[in-house]
Amino acid sequence: MKHLWAAMLVTVLFLSACGGANNASSNSSSGSSDSDKPSGPDLTTPAGAAKAVADAFASGDFAKFDPLWAKSATQEKKDKMKKEYGEIIAAGGPFKVEFKDADIVIEGDKAKVKSKLFIKPGKDDKAEEENETLDFVKEDGKWKYEG
Questions:
Q1: What is the sign of the dihedral through the CA atoms of 30, 35, 41 and 43?
Q2: Measured between alpha carbons, how far is 118 from 80 in angstroms, rounded to an integer?
Q3: Cβ contact 101:108 at 8 Å
Q4: Which residues contact 103 (CB under 8 A, 6 or more apart)?
Q5: How many whole angstroms from its chain centre is CA 128?
Q6: φ/ψ of residue 105, rounded to 5
């Protein structure tokens, strides 16, 4: 009888420990994944920064560029781009930027991304294709768009 109680106690403790560990892992993994998620675009790589720029163009919302600009980007450059971008968006024509990882060249804290820019000047116009190089610079561990 003593052995039966001892075996049952060991089994209960074992099952409690296993169940507790599973619950703790599932809670900690879901908690850490929520806190590990970036609060904005992924700017840790030139590819992530280029994707963020492409998404900003595609959105039609110039304000999405605000967190992407490098400190070295002049206000004049930003204003010129905003004006040109705004005119095309106002006419109903979208932008689309495409690039391949193989088209990214990193040299120290600078990166160039060869891309194709598809612009429809107006809603009913045919898309125009332009080759464009997107320039990035690494600032405080993040890749930022120079223009």
A1: negative
A2: 19
A3: no
A4: 113, 114, 115
A5: 26
A6: -120, 120
Distance from C-alpha of 91 to C-alpha of 80, rounded to nearest angstrom: 17
Phi and psi of 101, rounded to 5°?
-55, -30
Q: Reduce the DSSP state of residue 85 to 3 states and report it.
A: helix
Around 136, how many Cα atoms within 13 Å sit in the side-chain half-sphere? 31
Ordered per-residue pLDDT tens for the chain, 147 residues: 443 333 333 333 333 334 443 433 333 333 444 445 556 788 999 999 999 999 998 888 888 999 999 999 999 999 998 898 888 888 777 778 899 989 999 999 999 999 998 887 777 788 888 899 999 999 999 999 998
Encoded amino acid at 141, one letter: G
Which residues, at least 6 apart from 137, have a Cβ–Cβ distance to it below 8 Å?
Answer: 70, 72, 109, 110, 111, 143, 144, 146
Q: What one-letter code names the amino acid at 92? A: G
